[in-house]
C-alpha cells in the first residue's frame, strides 16, 4: 500500500516536471519583444542570450527525459538505475534556472558598476515571458529535487533500522 | 577491501570538494580591480554583483559542510543520511557556478542586443580572479557529483542482483 502510494507520488512528480519544463521551454522560446529608443531598435529574443539558449535546451532535455522515463517498467532493475539520470537532470535544470535567473535579474535591475542598464522597462513583454518561464522551470527543478528525496527515502528506509558494517 | 577503497575514495572527494570550494570562496572574495575611462571610474568587486555574492556564500556553505561531514562516523546510520544534504550542496554549488558563469560570460563577451558592453578588457585582473574562482567551484561541484554517484553505487549494488517487487 505504502509502495503503491510512493509509486503514484513519483509518477505525479514526473508528470509535473514534464509539464513544467515543457511550459518553460515554450514560454521562453516564444518570447519576443522590441522597442526603439533614439532611433536605435532594441530587439529581444532568447537566442541573443547564451544563458537563455542553455535554458531552453536544458528544459527541453528535462521534458523529454521526464516523458521517456515514464515508460520504464516500475518493478525492473532499470527503475532503480534511473536515479543516476535523475541526479543529472536535477543538476541540469538547477543550472538552467540559476543562469537564466542571473540574466533576468540583470535585465530587471541592471548593474550600474558595470555600466549595464536595466532593459525590462523597454521590453516588458519579453521580461514577463522570461519570468513566467523561470517560474515554470523552478517548479520542474523542485519536482526533481522531491523525486530524488523520494527515491533516497525509498532506497534507504529498509537499510536504516539495521546497522551493517 | 572494496568497502575500504570506496570509503577512501569518498573521503578524498570530500577533501577535494572542501579545498576547491575554499579556494573558490577566497579567490572570488579577494577579487578587486578598477579602471578609469573618460573620467569615469569603473570599480569591480564581487559585492556589486548579486550572482557573485551568491557564489561566495554558496561556496562557503559547501566548504563548511564538506569539513563538518568528515567527522560523521563512517559506520553510523547518520553516514547513510548525509546523501540528503549531499544532494542539496551539489545543487547549491551547481547553481552558484551557473549563475556566476552566466555573468562572467557577459563580462567577457557583452551582449550587444541589450546594450551591455564587455568589461573584461578594462578590468582584466578581476576577470582572471572570477575565472579562477569558477574553475575551483566547478571542481567542487564535480566532486559532489562523483560523491553522489559513488553513494548511489554503494547503496544500489547490493540491491541490483535481486528483483524485489
From TrEMBL, chains A, B:
Using the record's annotation, list all stretches that form the Casparian strip membrane protein domain.
5-142
Q: Transmembrane ranges?
A: 52-72, 84-106, 126-149
Q: Which GO terms describe its cellular component?
A: plasma membrane
- What is the recorded membrane topology of this protein? Multi-pass membrane protein
Please give the Pfam families that the UniProt record associates with this protein: CASP_dom
Location in or out of the cell:
Cell membrane
The record's listing under InterPro entries reads:
CASP/CASPL, CASP_dom, CASPL
Q: Where is the signal peptide?
A: 1-24
Keyword Signal assigned? yes
Keyword line = Cell membrane, Membrane, Signal, Transmembrane, Transmembrane helix
Q: Self-association or partners: how does it assemble?
A: Homodimer and heterodimers.
> PANTHER family annotated for this entry?
CASP-LIKE PROTEIN 1U1
| Family label | Belongs to the Casparian strip membrane proteins (CASP) family.
What is the protein named?
CASP-like protein
Amino acid at each position: 500500500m505504502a509502495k503503491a502510494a510512493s509509486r503514484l507520488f513519483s509518477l505525479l512528480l514526473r508528470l509535473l516536471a514534464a509539464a513544467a519544463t515543457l511550459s518553460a521551454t515554450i514560454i521562453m522560446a516564444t518570447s519576443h519583444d522590441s522597442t526603439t529608443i533614439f532611433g536605435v531598435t532594441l530587439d529581444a529574443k532568447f537566442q541573443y542570450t547564451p544563458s537563455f539558449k542553455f535554458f531552453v535546451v536544458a528544459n527541453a532535455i528535462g521534458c523529454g527525459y521526464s516523458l521517456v522515463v515514464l515508460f520504464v517498467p516500475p518493478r525492473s532493475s532499470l527503475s532503480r538505475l534511473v536515479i543516476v539520470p535523475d541526479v543529472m537532470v536535477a543538476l541540469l535544470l538547477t543550472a538552467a534556472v540559476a543562469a537564466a535567473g542571473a540574466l533576468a535579474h540583470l535585465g530587471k535591475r541592471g548593474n550600474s558598476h558595470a555600466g549595464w542598464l536595466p532593459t525590462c522597462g523597454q521590453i516588458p513583454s519579453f521580461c514577463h515571458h522570461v519570468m513566467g518561464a523561470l517560474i515554470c522551470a523552478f517548479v520542474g527543478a523542485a519536482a526533481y529535487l522531491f523525486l530524488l528525496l523520494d527515491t533516497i527515502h525509498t532506497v534507504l528506509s529498509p537499510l536504516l533500522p539495521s546497522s551493517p558494517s
